[in-house]
Design goal:
By secondary structure, the chain is α/β, with parallel strands linked by helices. It folds into two domains: about 240 residues, Type I PLP-dependent aspartate aminotransferase-like (Major domain) (Aspartate Aminotransferase, domain 2); about 120 residues, Aspartate Aminotransferase, domain 1 (Alpha-Beta Complex), CATH 3.90.1150. Helices cover about 40% and strands about 15% of the residues. It contains 13 helices and 15 strands. It has a seven-stranded mixed beta sheet, with helices on both faces. Strands 7-6-13 form a three-stranded antiparallel beta sheet, with no helix packed on it. A three-stranded antiparallel beta sheet has the order 12-14-15. Helix 2 runs antiparallel to helix 9. The longest helix has 19 residues. The radius of gyration is 20 Å and the shape is globular.
Length: about 375
């Protein structure tokens, strides 16, 4: 019998009373856009992440876009990022008219390589976007050194709670983007996101941009957008935030069980010393991936591929003129990676089934 890759229904059952009470309070207040719930969530997540400012927006993608706009990045400017990521990382750059410039990944961590960044910087580079892929932070100390003062933006959409030497995701760069898409470690009941920063001027700029360019009603200082976080989403997220550490701990325990079996037989995403991953995904690599996925499917076991096509080879990037082979490590990863269920509500017997099926035959 099958089971879900991410069991959000089980999560809801576990905290149903809290969720229902939080949403009920919003309905009773009649305040559905911005307001006290959103302001409280912004303060709580900023404190959790170790930054001064949190600005709630309508998605993680929008958080990235508004960061670029607040930094004045636009037509013709270059933003360096990884080619191995969810496409939103790249679409946010394109949406402001900037040019995504790719730097290859470290095959061990699957994250953007600081050495590749250093070799990619040009006089037109206006920002570097480091993605913390699958919950493992990119090597921010090395990336900041390589940046030589160029603003570094953290795409931390998969990494709330991750850290390097105790300093959490979102607290390293000029600003960071979070996503509250339902399947994230801290997920809402729909779309949502947040900008994190220690730069108060940047935070204020994003607050104006998210609300039609208006600081006060009726006075529009700049072209903005409808990019606000809903109060109902904030209420859900405020209920879930106190549970996040426990959920991340359970993810880590599930990941550790896999690693004890699979280490040495598969290439795994490696966490350097001092790096704590949120284990948003548990990802391994196999050259004969399709054979293994067929075996899992036949056993009614869920799995997923994140991400099957490197960003520079996506049709939406065809105008950049980048050919296959330009970023070999990212392309190789796209052909080999697959992810196994690791969510906090993964039943032990279901994880045992996953392990048994993968271990039943040798796959290189």
């Amino acid at each position: 019998m099958g089971f879900p890759f991410i069991d959000l229904a089980a999560q809801y059952r576990d905290i149903k009373q809290e969720i229902d009470a939080g949403q009920g309070a919003v309905f009773a207040s009649g305040c559905f856009i911005m307001g006290e719930e959103v302001e409280a969530l912004e303060a709580e997540i900023a404190a959790y992440s170790g930054v001064r400012e949190g600005v709630g927006v309508d998605s993680g993608t929008r958080a990235l876009e508004l960061i670029y706009r607040a930094l004045g990045i636009g037509s013709g400017d270059e933003v360096i990022t990884t080619p191995f990521t969810f496409f939103a990382t790249v679409s946010a750059i394109l949406s402001v008219g900037a040019v995504p410039v790719f730097a290859d990944i470290d095959p061990a961590t699957l994250n953007i390589s600081a050495e590749s960044i250093a070799n990619t910087i040009t006089p037109r580079t206006r920002a570097i976007c480091a993605v913390h892929l699958f919950g493992l932070m990119a090597d921010m100390p090395q990336i900041l050194d390589a940046a030589q003062g160029i603003p570094v933006i953290e795409d931390a959409c998969q990494a709330i709670g991750a850290s390097i030497m105790g300093k959490r995701a979102g607290a390293w760069g000029r600003a960071a983007a979070l996503s509250f898409f339902p399947t994230k470690n801290l997920g809402g009941a729909g779309d949502g996101g947040m900008v994190l920063t220690n730069d108060r001027d940047l935070a204020d700029h994003v607050r104006i941009l998210r609300n039609h360019g208006a600081r006060i009603p009726g006075r529009h200082e700049m072209l903005g957008a409808t990019a606000r976080l809903d109060a109902l989403q904030a209420a859900v997220l405020r209920v879930k935030l106190p549970h996040l550490e426990e959920w991340n701990t359970r993810r880590a325990a599930n990941a550790a069980r896999y690693t004890r079996v699979f280490a040495g037989n598969f290439a795994l995403q490696e966490s350097p010393a001092g790096f704590i991953s949120t284990r948003h995904q548990y990802t391994l690599r196999a050259k004969q991936r399709e054979t293994l996925l067929a075996r899992l499917k036949s056993a009614d076991i869920p799995c997923a591929i994140y991400y099957p096509i490197a960003a520079h080879l996506q049709e939406a990037c065809r105008h950049l003129g980048i050919q296959e082979g330009a970023y070999p490590e990212a392309e190789r990863a796209a052909h080999e990676v697959f992810s196994l269920p690791v969510c906090p509500y993964l039943a032990p017997e279901n994880q045992a089934r996953v392990i048994d099926v993968i271990s039943s035959g040798r796959i290189e």
